[in-house]
Amino acid sequence: MKRWPLYAAITYVVLLFVGLFILPTAPEVTASGAKLVHFYREHDTAIRVVAWCGTLSTLPIAVLLAHLRSRLSGTSRDVMLLGAAGLLSTTTLWLWFNAGLALHPFALHPNTARTLADIGAYFGPTLTVSIVLIVVPLGLAAWKGEGGLPRWFAWLSAVFATEQLIETITVMGRRGFIAPGGPMNLMLGAGLFAVWVIAAGVASSATPATPTT
Fold first, then answer.
1. Angle made by CA atoms 50, 55, 56, in degrees to the nearest 5
2. Do 189 and 163 touch, CB atoms closer than 8 A?
3. What digits encode the pLDDT tens for the residues 82-132?
4. Are 105 and 48 in contact (CB under 8 A)?
5. Confidence at residue 211, expressed as pLDDT on a 0 to 100 scale
6. What pLDDT digit, counting tens, does each position of 6-15 carry?
7. Out of 60, 70, 151, 211, which residue is the most buried by the measure of CB atoms under 10 Å away?
8. Does the CA dihedral 126-54-110-187 come out positive or negative?
9. CB atoms within 10 A of CB 30
């Protein structure tokens, strides 16, 4: 079988999570604006590198999602397309805010930093719905034996979609685990997303697609 969907998935995950190795965890939403300014001044170059890697990561994920969408038919194809568009556009906006704050860090005012970082923190909470729109159509297709996707992928997709729906509670969070942009978004949700993306690459590479209409 062709393995390039798996290679696209791996490339995406590597680029997306490179920041875990080169950039310390950003201050929480409860941190002061002054603490944020210090963070951007100390790590401005690393933040822009992460934004660069994030920009490049949109290429392999777009290829993977397009390949997965080709296995769907009818309304499911359109629903997944909307989810994929939401994922790519929201990611781009998040990269804009992070890279923009790091461009002139020594001219950054604490109040400005806090406000823009708060806006960017809602990337994770709102991204959850776009991911559900991607995952559920593929999971249903796998469950029904359509698109050449294996049944185990349906179970994984169901678990991940459930977690993402629960994760929408971070919209209402203010601190701690459920804070917007907090551990539930950046550790639990992002970690499961990486697992699902790799699994999608494996499932898509290991099974032939069936004709869709």
1. 100
2. yes
3. 999 999 999 999 999 999 999 999 999 999 999 999 999 999 999 999 999
4. no
5. 46
6. 999 999 999 9
7. 60
8. positive
9. 11
Tokens of 95: 């990269």
Q: Residue 204: count other Cβ atoms within 10 Å of its Cβ.
A: 29
Tokens of 85: 């568009």
**Spacing of C-alpha 56 from chain mean position:** 14
Kindly provide the b/e burial profile for residues 148-168, where b requires at least 16 CB atoms within 10 angstroms of the residue's own CB.
bbbeebbebbbebbebbeebe
Nearest to 206, CA basis, from 161, 142, 157: 142
Alpha-carbon distances of 77 from 5, 70, 211, rounded to whole Å: 18, 8, 13
Summarised one tens digit per residue, pLDDT across range 140-179 is 999 999 988 999 999 999 999 999 999 999 999 999 999 9
Q: Give the C-alpha separation, 16 to 93, whole Å.
A: 15
Predicted local distance difference test score (pLDDT) of residue 84: 97
Q: What angle do CA 196, 201, 204 make, to 5 degrees?
A: 115
Give the relative orientation of helices 110-121 and 123-143 as an angle to the nearest 10 degrees. 10
Residues 10, 129: Cα–Cα separation, whole Å: 23
CA dist., res. 175 & res. 167, Å (int): 14
What's the angle, vertex CA 17, arms to CA 153 and CA 54, rounded to 5? 100
- The torsion angle over the Cα atoms of residues 190, 179, 167 and 81, rounded to 10 degrees, is -60
H-helix or E-strand spanning residue 12:
helix 4-16
